[in-house]
Amino acid sequence: MANTSNKKAAPKRNVSSSAHPFSAWLNQQMGAIKFSMERLWFNPVSTWITLAAIAIALSLPTSLHLLLKNMQTLTDDKREVPTITLFLKQPVSEQQAKDRAELLSELPEIDKVRVVTRDEAMADFRKITGFAQTLETLDENPLPHVLIITPKLGLLDDLDMDVDNFSKKLKAYPEVDDVQIDVEWVQRLRAILRIAERIVLVVSILLGLTVLLVVGNTIRLDIENRKDEIRVTRLIGATNAYIRRPFIYNGIWLGLFGGVLSLVIVHVALLFLVEPVTKLANLYGSTFTLSGVDVFMTLQILLASSILGIIGSWLAVGRYLWQSDDGVA
C-alpha cells in the first residue's frame, strides 16, 4: 500500500489571481481620475479662464455649422421648393387652362399644378396695387390664365441643367406664352452655401488647433508646477504611463467641460435669435424656424472636445517625457 503521508497536498488555485491585474489597473485609473479632478480645481480662477477660452473657440464653429444647417433647409425643405409659372396665351380659355394643368400634373417631374384664372389674378392685382377704379375703365381683363407648377425635389438636384431643359419643354406647348422660373434665389443660395461649407471647415480646423494649444499650454504649466514631484516618482520606479495618466485625464476634463460650456453659449445665442428670425420669416410668408443643437450633434461636440483635450495633453506630456529621457528636463 502506497505511503500517502509523504505526498504533498495540491496547492489550491487562487480564484482572484486572474482578476488581480485588472483590479490593479482599475484602481490606478480611478486614482488618476480622482487626482486629476482635484488638481483641475486646485486653482479655480485659472481653470475657469481656460474653460472659457475653450468654450469660445468651440462655440464659433458650432454656431457657424448651425447657421449653415438652417440655411440648407431653405433649399431642402418642400415648403421652400421654387415654383415654375406658365403664362398662357390670351385666347386660351379657362377650361383649356384646366385641361392643360391636368395633363401637366401627370408628368413625372411635376409635384402639383395650380390654376390661377385671369379673374383671380385681377382680384389679387387689385388687392396688391389698389388701382381698382383705374381697372374698371378697361374694356376687358388683360391678364392671362396662369399655371403655377411645383416641381419635384429630384428635379432640383442639378438646377443649371434639369430645370432649364424642363422649362424649354414646357414652353414648347402651344398654349404657353412665357415661362418664369423662381429658381435664381436657390441657385445663388446654394452657391453661397458651398462657399460657407469651406469657410466653416477652415474655421473649425483653426479653432480646433486653438483648443489644442490652450489645453497643451495648461498641461505644460501644470507639469512645470509638479516637476519635482514627477522626478521623485520616477526615482521610485514610476513608468511614463503612470506619470502621463493623470495629465491625460486632466486634458479630458478640460475638453469635456469646455464643450459643455460651449453648448450653453450656443443655446443662449439661439434664444436671442429665435424671435427676430421668426418675425422675418412671417414677413415673407414662410414657416421657417431655427433648429437648435440636437442630441447627435451634442454628442459629436462633446466627443470632439474630449479628443482635442486628450491630444493636447498627450503632446504636452510626451514632449516633457521625451526631454527628460534625453536629460534636458
UniProtKB/TrEMBL annotation:
<keyword id="KW-0997">Cell inner membrane</keyword>
<dbReference type="GO" id="GO:0051301">
    <property type="term" value="P:cell division"/>
</dbReference>
<feature type="transmembrane region" description="Helical">
    <location>
        <begin position="45"/>
        <end position="68"/>
    </location>
</feature>
<dbReference type="InterPro" id="IPR004513">
    <property type="entry name" value="FtsX"/>
</dbReference>
<dbReference type="GO" id="GO:0005886">
    <property type="term" value="C:plasma membrane"/>
</dbReference>
<keyword id="KW-0131">Cell cycle</keyword>
<feature type="domain" description="FtsX extracellular">
    <location>
        <begin position="83"/>
        <end position="179"/>
    </location>
</feature>
<keyword id="KW-1133">Transmembrane helix</keyword>
<keyword id="KW-1003">Cell membrane</keyword>
<keyword id="KW-0132">Cell division</keyword>
<keyword id="KW-0812">Transmembrane</keyword>
<feature type="transmembrane region" description="Helical">
    <location>
        <begin position="295"/>
        <end position="317"/>
    </location>
</feature>
<comment type="function">
    <text>Part of the ABC transporter FtsEX involved in cellular division.</text>
</comment>
<comment type="similarity">
    <text>Belongs to the ABC-4 integral membrane protein family. FtsX subfamily.</text>
</comment>
<keyword id="KW-0472">Membrane</keyword>
<dbReference type="Pfam" id="PF02687">
    <property type="entry name" value="FtsX"/>
</dbReference>
<feature type="domain" description="ABC3 transporter permease C-terminal">
    <location>
        <begin position="202"/>
        <end position="323"/>
    </location>
</feature>
<dbReference type="InterPro" id="IPR047590">
    <property type="entry name" value="FtsX_proteobact-type"/>
</dbReference>
<dbReference type="InterPro" id="IPR040690">
    <property type="entry name" value="FtsX_ECD"/>
</dbReference>
<feature type="transmembrane region" description="Helical">
    <location>
        <begin position="199"/>
        <end position="219"/>
    </location>
</feature>
<dbReference type="Pfam" id="PF18075">
    <property type="entry name" value="FtsX_ECD"/>
</dbReference>
<comment type="subunit">
    <text>Forms a membrane-associated complex with FtsE.</text>
</comment>
<feature type="transmembrane region" description="Helical">
    <location>
        <begin position="252"/>
        <end position="274"/>
    </location>
</feature>
<dbReference type="GO" id="GO:0032153">
    <property type="term" value="C:cell division site"/>
</dbReference>
<dbReference type="InterPro" id="IPR003838">
    <property type="entry name" value="ABC3_permease_C"/>
</dbReference>
<protein>
    <recommendedName>
        <fullName>Cell division protein FtsX</fullName>
    </recommendedName>
</protein>
